[in-house]
Specification:
Helices cover 48% and strands 10% of the residues. By secondary structure, the protein is mainly α. The chain has a three-stranded antiparallel sheet with strand order 1-2-3, covered by helices on one side. The chain has two domains: 60 residues, Double Stranded RNA Binding Domain (2-Layer Sandwich); 42 residues, Orthogonal Bundle (Arc Repressor Mutant), CATH 1.10.1220. A hairpin with a 7-residue loop joins β2 and β3. The radius of gyration is 20 Å and the shape is elongated. α3 packs across α4. The chain starts with a helix and ends with a helix. Pfam families: HicB_lk_antitox. This is Toxin-antitoxin system HicB family antitoxin. InterPro entries: Arc_rbn_hlx_hlx (IPR013321), HicB-like (IPR031807), Ribbon_hlx_hlx (IPR010985), TA_system_antitoxin (IPR051404), TTHA1013/TTHA0281-like (IPR035069).
């Protein structure tokens, strides 16, 4: 069985979001449901997040709640196949050619641009 120390050494992903209404920053750990804190500055929020993570794990261990290990990028290959209409394929190929990059690079650009818009 893993100990508090074991879990504290794991690299859990931290999400930091600016709180535009109240001011400061809100921090959460997606892999630790309900583990959330805040701080007036990013630095304060990160320090508070480490304390919150420790308190969350301690409580979970005491209560026998399952603690998930951090999500790992090794689970993702970075590749997926996608079937698209021929007309879209042609359009993507033409745009990428105009930009002087591969269609793969152009599609990655479009996906990352949209992901940035939707993650706000």
């Amino acid at each position: 069985m893993k100990t508090l120390s074991d879990y504290m050494k794991m690299a859990y992903r931290m999400e930091i979001v600016e709180d535009k209404e109240e001011g400061g920053y809100v921090v959460s750990y997606p892999d630790l449901p309900g583990c959330i804190t805040c701080g007036e500055t990013i630095e304060d929020a990160v320090v508070n997040a480490v304390d919150a993570k420790k308190a969350w794990i301690e409580a979970a261990l005491e209560e026998g709640i399952e603690i998930h290990e951090p999500d790992n990028l090794e689970h993702y290959s970075g590749q997926f196949k996608l079937r698209i209409p021929r007309s879209l394929h042609r359009s993507l190929a033409e745009h990428s050619k105009r930009e002087g990059i591969s269609m793969n690079q152009y599609c990655v650009y479009l996906l990352s641009k949209n992901d940035a818009v939707y993650s706000k």
